[in-house]
Structure formats: structure tokens, C-alpha cells
Write a structure and sequence with these properties.
alpha/beta; nine-stranded mixed beta sheet; three-stranded antiparallel beta sheet; disordered N terminus; binds iron/sulfur cluster
């Protein structure tokens, strides 16, 4: 993925919280001002909840065997008609050149012949799944992420899609999406992608300012991106997404204001706005960024405020967390109708699926488990050569995890927890089970971010900008002392 952050990157969440709270004031999104004291109390680290438990809770005791078992359970469930639809995520790790802000799992190479070996391995991994699940299982969602999926040639992408088409049945109306690096694409390439069945597309823009682009080693002109977005629209791609990042070197509130205006003018259906976290100790490419060129915290806050105000002003809807969408986009409609879901790609309109993660470092969700593949190519290849799933860690959710996942996802997606539906689904009394958490919510109630009554918990309009802080109250792991220590070490 082009995300500059990982799911549990606590450090930038600190920034995000304070920045969003201040920025929403700037944007006029909050009716009342928020005190510095409140900001400080809210300003605690927390994950993005693309899963619960979050990926940093996965353990090595969950490996290939446990994953195979979860697949078998799904296959048995499917035989009695109970399996939910399947979703596929494929990770293509290769990039031709490195973006200095990158925190993704990728392999930088100009040797395109390496893709063939990787496609062979993916095919083996798919075959292992078919052996457990049976051939021709229906897939309602397929996403190619990276790295750079368009590192693959047209012929290689065709080979990949044909291979998937033989192993699975891509359902009519399935969302078939791909992340596109504008530097590796052309209208002709997009036409080929459309012909292969892709109907959603995401472009990594990040920033349009030439000085910023040079500082992060990712140079792509507005004209090039415009040409691609126009072509994508003409080809019938829906939900065209643009990724932006604020907090990059040489960015100023003025320069980012131009990027915001240029992006809004291109009218992508969705915009994802990520915060850059400078963690050169953890992410090697970031060592090539000159820390002296990074915007000061106050400038970051201004940029975020300007982005929120700018996109709302240009008619976009704030979906939640880091996402905006045009009002007629499926995501904005789902938000209005309380049908948002959350998966590893962020907000989604698709109901919760079993997700098969294919490729190096890919994460999957199968039944009540999460799993992650090996993070390096040698390890990934080795497992497959020995006929094993390349899963190296994961987690089998406990009953408590499942209850908390329901609550956290209800908060993140609907901004509301209905006690009765949680009670019915999990056979618990919410006020009793979560007595400590409801107590811990009281300061947020006092600050007008949530309302609690006998029926449930409601996140208020201003609280929606801080929804992950509300969700964190129900995260058993984040609340533990151990987690606090770990987070503070990262920070
Ligand atoms: S294109 Fe490659 S190097 Fe650049 S951000 Fe994405 S994964 Fe990282």
C-alpha cells in the first residue's frame, strides 16, 4: 500500500489526534473550541483499527498449521451454507525507485524479470488455498496493492488475473481494485487494466509541489495525474481514489494549499489524507529525508486544517479517520446509511468478508483469526517451495476479542454501539461486561465527544473526528500497561 504508515504506528497518531482536534476548529467543524487540557488528555497513541486485535498483537504461535485449520473450518461451514463471501488481497512488493517517506513492505529493483518468480510463488499460494477450499469459490472483492502493482507488465497482470480467474469465481459486480503509481501508468495501461476487469483505481499523488516531490524522490506532474484520472473516468472506473500526505519535507501551508486545490479540481471520488511520521530508525528510506526540511508541528496542524476545510468546501464528505468522498460516491452513501465497514484497506462498503491475503507480508482474516505472511521474499519463497502456507504469525480471536471487535467496529463505522444488538450477538450484558470502559468514557462524555444512555453509546458530530480515541477505550491491549510502555518506546 502507498500508506506512509503502518496499522499500529502509534507515534503519528499522537500528532494526528492533536492536529485533527485543532484543525477541525480551524475548519469550523466543531461548534465549541477545545481546550488545551482536553487536547492533552485526548492526545494519546492509538491504532487505526483496520483490525481488532491490531497487527502488533499477532503472535508466532499462530502459523501455517493454524491458518490451514481456519481454512478447513471455512470449507466445512461453506458446505452447510454458512460461509461469508471471499475477499482477496494481493501484495506486489516491487518498486522501481524508492519514495523517501516510504514505510511499506517493498523491494526496490529495476529487474523486472523478478516478477516472474513472484507470480510463480503466488500461483503456488493460490493452489494451496484451492486445495483447502475447493476451486471456483466466489470472490466479491479483489485488491492489488503494493509496493507497486503496476511494476508488473501488462502481460504479467494478465497472467495474474487469468490465474485468479481459474482458481476463483469473480462474482458479477465484484469490486476489483488496483493501486496505481502514476509514474508507471498511461491511459493505454489503464485501458488494459479495465479490460482485465479492474473497476476501481487508486492513485498515489502525495503532493504536487515540485520541491516536495524532489525532497521525497517521487516526481510526477499534475498534468500526468490529470490525464490518468480523466482516462480512468472515461474507461468507467468508479470510486477513483487519490492519496495525499501532509507533513512531508519542504511542504508549507501555502504549498499544501495549492496541492489541496489541484487535487480537488481533479475531482477524484475519494481522497485519503495521511500523516507523515518521520521514523528514520524504523524505516530506512526515511534516513534520506533531511529532518531540518520537515514542517514544524504548527505548520502540520495548519495543513491538516486547511485540507479538512478545503475538501469539505469543495463538496467532499468527511467519511472518518483519513478519508473523504464525494457525496454520490458509494462510501459517502454508505456513511449516510450507516453501512460503513472497515477492513485492511480502511473504510469499505463491503460487508465483513473472509479475506485471503496473498503475497509477501500480506494480512488475511479467516473466520475468527487474522494471519500474516512472511515479510521477506526468501522466507516467503521457502515456505511455498516446501508446500506450506507462508503464514508466520497471526491470532485466533478469543470470545473477549470478538465482543470488543464488534464494539470497536460499530464505533469506527457507525459511530454508535447499540447495547441490545451486542447483547444478542454475544450473550452478554453490555453495561456489566464493559462497566470499567463505560466509566472510562465519562471524561469523553463530559467533553461532548460521546453520549451514553441505557440503549447505547453515540459518538457526537465533533467526537467523530476523534472516533479512534473512543474506540481505544474498548481495546483491551491498548489499555494494558505493557501496551503503554511499548507505545511510549516507539514515540
Ligand atoms: S511506490 Fe514503493 S517506495 Fe513509493 S511509497 Fe509506495 S511502496 Fe513505498
Amino acid at each position: 500500500m502507498h500508506h506512509p504508515l503502518e496499522a499500529d504506528q502509534a507515534s503519528q497518531i499522537v500528532l494526528w489526534h492533536s492536529a485533527v482536534m485543532q484543525a477541525t476548529r480551524t475548519a469550523g467543524a466543531l461548534e465549541q473550541g477545545i481546550s488545551q487540557a482536553l487536547l492533552q488528555r485526548l492526545d494519546v497513541p492509538g491504532p487505526r483499527y483496520t483490525s481488532y486485535p491490531t497487527a502488533d498483537r499477532f503472535v508466532e504461535a499462530f502459523g501455517a498449521e493454524q491458518y490451514a485449520l481456519a481454512l478447513r473450518e471455512r470449507a466445512q461451514g461453506a458446505r452447510v451454507g454458512g460461509a461469508p463471501p471471499l475477499s482477496l488481497y494481493l501484495h506486489i512488493p516491487f518498486c522501481e525507485s524508492v519514495c523517501y517517506y516510504c514505510a511499506c513492505n517493498k523491494v526496490v529493483t529495476r529487474h523486472h524479470e523478478r516478477a516472474a518468480e513472484y507470480l510463480d510463488a503466488l500461483e503456488t499460494e493460490v493452489d494451496l488455498h484451492v486445495a483447502e477450499l475447493g476451486a471456483g469459490k466466489s470472490v466479491s472483492q479483489l485488491h492489488l496493492g503494493g509496493g507497486t502493482p503496476t511494476f508488473l507488465s501488462d502481460a504479467e497482470l494478465q497472467r495474474l488475473m487469468e490465474m485468479l480467474g481459474r482458481a476463483f469465481r469473480i462474482a458479477a459486480g465484484a469490486e476489483v481494485s488496483i493501486e496505481v503509481d502514476p509514474r508507471t501508468a498511461s491511459p493505454e495501461r489503464l485501458r488494459h487494466l479495465a479490460a482485465l476487469g479492474f473497476n476501481r483505481i487508486s492513485f498515489g499523488i502525495q503532493d504536487f509541489d515540485p520541491a516536495v516531490q524532489q525532497a521525497v524522490h517521487r516526481v510526477q506532474s499534475v498534468d500526468c495525474v490529470r490525464e490518468l484520472i480523466v482516462a480512468a473516468r472515461e474507461l468507467g472506473f468508479r470510486s477513483i481514489n487519490a492519496d495525499l500526505i501532509y507533513g512531508l519535507p519542504r511542504q508549507t501551508p501555502e504549498s499544501f494549499q495549492r496541492t489541496i486545490a489541484q487535487t480537488a479540481e481533479l475531482r477524484p471520488d475519494r481522497i485519503a489524507l495521511y500523516a507523515y511520521a518521520h521514523l528514520p530508525q524504523r524505516f530506512k528510506p526515511q534516513r534520506r529525508i533531511d529532518a531540518a526540511e520537515l514542517p514544524a508541528p504548527q505548520a502540520r496542524v495548519q495543513m491538516l486544517g486547511a485540507a479538512i476545510a478545503g475538501f469539505l468546501g469543495h463538496g467532499y464528505t468527511y467519511i472518518g479517520m483519513d478519508h473523504f468522498a464525494l457525496p454520490d460516491d458509494a462510501l459517502a452513501q454508505a456513511k449516510r446509511q450507516g453501512r460503513l465497514h472497515r477492513n485492511f484497506q480502511g473504510y469499505s462498503t463491503q460487508p465483513d468478508c473472509d479475506l485471503i491475503g496473498l503475497g509477501v507480508s500480506a494480512i488475511g482474516r479467516m473466520g475468527a483469526t487474522y494471519s500474516q505472511n512472511a515479510k521477506t521474499l526468501p522466507e516467503y519463497y521457502d515456505a511455498l517451495q516446501h508446500g506450506r502456507f507462508p503464514v508466520v504469525r497471526g491470532i485466533a480471536l478469543t470470545r473477549d476479542d470478538l465482543v470488543r471487535r464488534s464494539v470497536i467496529m460499530a464505533l469506527m463505522c457507525q459511530g454508535r454501539v447499540d447495547f441490545e444488538s451486542i447483547a444478542l450477538a454475544h450473550l452478554i450484558s453490555v453495561p456489566e461486561y464493559f462497566a470499567a470502559e463505560l466509566e472510562a468514557l465519562k471524561p469523553l462524555v463530559e467533553d461532548g465527544l460521546v453520549e451514553v444512555d441505557a440503549d447505547g453509546i453515540q459518538v457526537t458530530a465533533s467526537g467523530w473526528y476523534f472516533v479512534r480515541g473512543v474506540a481505544m477505550v474498548f481495546d483491551r491491549y491498548a489499555r494494558s500497561q505493557q501496551a503503554r510502555e511499548r507505545f511510549s518506546r516507539i514515540v
